[in-house]
């Protein structure tokens, strides 16, 4: 999923005020999450590299 | 109609739920665990009381196609998986190792025995039933990253489980029957529904997301925000 799909509009670096999601959820049981921060370092697809600051 | 979150008694509400999608073979998950713990410690020092949170781990297999008995090092797996030179994979591992050291975690990539983590996830579900999931998670991470223990075989997992107070025979029976396989699959399905494609991933109160091993200060702000809004906004259910 893209960042745009997960983050509420206006998300800025650092923690931003959260808000309940209002967009359509993938299913009725799963709400869209309001992201409280920019993406941090994570493992995806078996790769756990140190993120490039320029790409953050 | 929306309802407000239940108040158990005046001034006492339900703990803030922190659901964490994570894998065992995931260095950022280990680092993130330490950073969240540091955040909770900072809040405890600031407020004079530990924040009322409830933490639950959920399964996320980063490399489900990994053989249980993978022949080779974790670095070789990474190089092969990404199609990059071994030296580049080693450099990536070294960078993460240095960051882990800064969090007080010793990564021994020379010892790591890369494996499929499905059974480890099943064990974490069993541990949850016995109220020992957090301890089991820590034990598995240390075993994998620091001690070079194998975490893919039922017998090895049963040994580790016994160290945190679980019944070894029960673990062997559960892993042999695949009793918790559906729970692992359900966690993975939930992750997909949320759109999670990397771990660690944190969900606060079922509606706020935090992706990745954030700095403790970010966790503090996020938890503060979640607590503040849950007190002023209706719950979604």
TrEMBL record, chain A:
Residues 1-26 are annotated as: Disordered. This is Uncharacterized protein. It comes from Myceligenerans crystallogenes.
